[in-house]
Amino acid sequence: MVINFFYCFYRCCCRGDPTMFVEYWKKAGEKSSIMIPGWHNLSYFPNNNGGNVCWFLEKEFSDEVKKLHESVGNATTKDRYIVVGTGSTQLYQAALFALTSTDDDNDHDYSSKPMDVVSAVPYYSSYPAVTDLLKSRLYKWGGDAYKFDDKNEPYIEVVCSPNNPDGHTMEPVVNGNGGKLIYDLAYYWPQYTPITKPADHDIMLFTVSKSTGHAGTRVGWAIVKDEKIARKMTKFIEISTIGVSKDSQYRAATIMRAVTESGQSISLQLAGNFFEFGKTILVDRWERLRKVAAENGAFSLPKYPKQSCNYFGEIREAHPGFAWLKCNLENVEDCESLIKGNLNILVRGGKNFGMDNKKYVRISLLDHEDKFQILLDRLATVSSSSTKIKA
Amino acid sequence: MVINFFYCFYRCCCRGDPTMFVEYWKKAGEKSSIMIPGWHNLSYFPNNNGGNVCWFLEKEFSDEVKKLHESVGNATTKDRYIVVGTGSTQLYQAALFALTSTDDDNDHDYSSKPMDVVSAVPYYSSYPAVTDLLKSRLYKWGGDAYKFDDKNEPYIEVVCSPNNPDGHTMEPVVNGNGGKLIYDLAYYWPQYTPITKPADHDIMLFTVSKSTGHAGTRVGWAIVKDEKIARKMTKFIEISTIGVSKDSQYRAATIMRAVTESGQSISLQLAGNFFEFGKTILVDRWERLRKVAAENGAFSLPKYPKQSCNYFGEIREAHPGFAWLKCNLENVEDCESLIKGNLNILVRGGKNFGMDNKKYVRISLLDHEDKFQILLDRLATVSSSSTKIKA
């Protein structure tokens, strides 16, 4: 093996493990800590639901969700329903269930055709596996939205914006009459992308994993316009996991409160504005990554338009949490297989995102600084004239 | 409405909300509390996995699971795999997936017949809804195991022991050649039933909801003999929720450690032995409930054999967390509909458990004392000679 490149050195690189935020939270101090006495949170039911449609939702959590969106300006929550989930992955399934199941609990008609679920390439690599996990008769993965044969039948299009893996702002591409839309807005936060307007769609998914960096807490939320859809999503989560960890909901509320307050008064937080912290690191990493790419010519990176960001009050471009690398080397058949086979290291090649394994690889920019530097160092050893690669 | 009876006055009664344990944990003090600083648990990956097959399992959690089982003597964990789940409900689905899915990720053959999942009546009311939630082509609810037509084809039998709702110790009833077994042992703990031997089955499910009372934490675990099954269960949970809340795993570990220690040294814990606390309350509640039943004759209760309990070192009978009431009134068509329709209160009638709504109702004995007393007071107003019930 002559050249090691385009891969994750650590398993976590592949998942976008958001450990770069640890440094911020170490500085943030007590305001972000939570103490849970042994006698708290025993019940299945919320300490205070506040009359929410989602019966297992803690009011404190939904209050902080609304305050955070209000302060960031990235989503409309007024007159919307909040549904909490075990990460946005569970909420994605809840939305599929809500959009495809009938109202009749006793409907055992298994003959109907599953509804197609599509998303534009390159799409988030987990969508196909999650959608087809149980081989449901309600829905099935239909692949690339650009190639979807719209026959005026119902379908679901997942719009991931900014898109994972390539960071671009997305709109629906099918635009068929029978289309139902799920917006996955996990990365629509100021550290990653310009906040141009409050998103306002029927079903929007968010997660603390990417907004605050607390992936291990496994908490996400959906903002839903239609009460019936919110109720069906709640039903899915009730049946599949009897709600969502209250400990995690309270912890996420504490963390989100700290984020909101960090943006309101610098003096409150030694650590400074949370989103400023994230943006500063990502701007720096993208500069270093683009420098390496420009110098060796072995790969290219997406370009992002300059847009007005309402949150930071400036014209800026996106600095996504992932880099979608296009490989310019001609003698590589399949980067993913090469790396997995020779190095036994997990990597996400383009094929996972509905694209070409030879051409594209996704890497994470959200890891610890030392790991990111190793990645850069290795990428720097590649050159466009490299021709010898033993597979 | 002349008589209000056999129902849950509170929604939580129906789910077996384990709030009677709050009193214990209020006494247990600091040892059962947990402090989580803002910078902890950001990663998707465990702080320390300890080489477990389940990649998102925290070693501290699995260590405490093993110590607790060792101290109680209710399950074998030596040379077994521990899989953590978002409650035992998720682990149940993970087990169904593991026992029915093929090894081929790219297997899109949807033509095969779903495998039947059966359980002996009265079965836990959630099994049918959870099994058929997504109308999977992998498995489907097959109903009462006693009526299952075994054709020497593969099937899954769920053995819930002690059984929810009726508290009896259960064995498999089909005993066919193609049978695969899942043991739901949520209630196999000393506060509910005599611990006669360490359970030792291929797949065993447990949950903190019923063992320690922390339902809101949404954590359960499976003890699995076969590595391949443990890996497939892990895969299911990875895809459906990208693991299990680390905050919840650490909290559950803290709570379980306190339970184990409470049984080892009374001086360590002002609250005393946790299982002794639970048993004392349940023995008392069953006595009071049996007294009401004997006095009015309107309903009967199951009887349990006296068995040797290794944990308490005494001959005792079961005092389950639920009471499975058999209605002796002749003029009631459907207790559940009557109560839901007239009182708008949720209740679980026998039909939910594969039985008769007229004859059977499940009530919880795990609620707060004041609620349990109200239940008793109302049950006491019923008499076997009651004939007038307006529906």
Notes on the structure:
Two copies of one chain form a homodimer. With 391 residues, chain A is α/β, with parallel strands linked by helices. Chain A folds into two domains: 11-21 and 272-380, Aspartate Aminotransferase, domain 1; 46-264, Type I PLP-dependent aspartate aminotransferase-like (Major domain) (Aspartate Aminotransferase, domain 2), CATH 3.40.640. Chain A has eleven helices and 14 strands. The first copy, chain A, has helices spanning 11-15, 22-28, 59-72, 87-100, 126-132, 208-211, 227-241, 246-264, 274-296, 335-343, 369-380, and strands spanning 34-36, 81-85, 115-119, 139-144, 155-160, 179-184, 203-207, 220-224, 299-300, 307-309, 314-316, 322-327, 348-349, 360-364. Chain A has a seven-stranded mixed beta sheet with strand order 2-8-7-6-5-3-4. The radius of gyration of chain A is 21 Å and the shape is globular. The interface between A and B is large, with 69 and 69 residues.
